User: Fold MBL fold metallo-hydrolase from Bdellovibrio svalbardensis.
Amino acid sequence: MSLTIKFWGVRGSLPSAPTPTEWTYHIEGVLRNFFSLGYRDLSQVSKYIKSIEEPVVGGYGTATTSVELRCGRSQIIIDGGSGIRTLSESIMTGTLGRAKGPFHIFMTHFHWDHVIGLPFFTPHFIPGSEIHYYAVQSDLEQLIRGIFKRPYFPVPFEDLKAKIHFHVLEPRKPVKVDDFTVTPFKLDHPDPCWGYKVEAAGKTYAHCVDTEGTRVTPEELGEDLPLYQNVDVMYFDAQYTLPELAEKANWGHSAAQVGLEIALREGIRRVLFAHHDPGARSEHVMELKRQTGEYYQSLISKASENKENINEIIWDFAHEGLEIVL
Assistant:
């Protein structure tokens, strides 16, 4: 049995898409690249598309945070950003099966970008459907009820057809959901935000957005250090460059370089960076990726010079629709 992770939304703060003018320039660049690489015939378009990274053509996506994890017939969802709407469509068209659930939704916190998609999760409106919400926040039920309330949404919570259950979690205490073991750990965010360590099929995923990474050393992380230990894949907040991180202290978001430092020290095998800024177009994220690559190589070179043993990691910037299987 394997653990499958799919990222239905990877943008932060606000759903955001390029303007028509920006898309025009982007497409023009893609076409120019086609010819500059020596392609001439339309029959070569598919070959060209397959030869480059998906975000180079389609961008990194517009939807905010929502991550699905599957193991066998078990499924959990982390956060209800606008990406959960697309997940909902897949569920309703039968692509994923089990239209009535039960569905298990773990909430990190309740900023707009993490809840905006919840009213568009169709199983809420299906008689006999069953939805379980989980969060450390003690007012979980009140917060979810408040989303389904006029004037924010026309259908009140009391009119939802699904059976909805609420589970308040204890910090750093694991909970079992089918084939998953899920443990909440505190992140560095202005409003309380809880990351999740998810274990299934002998693999471990660490969900670490939104976090500023103000605590980095083992001593600083203290009882939250296990979130980063014995992890196969870490999903880490990288909304800013290092200079931007200094300018936006206490905004609750981090830079890829911070995540790399933690990953290398703790021996994390793979890192995906996300929570892309709403103003960040494809070229901006690719520039972040270039800067991250330079920083990563400097860390590797420094370790080599000092004759230190270091486990190299696989890292990238996540895009909407990305699916990985462990």
Notes: The first strand starts at residue 3 and ends at 9. The two ends are 9 Å apart (CA to CA).
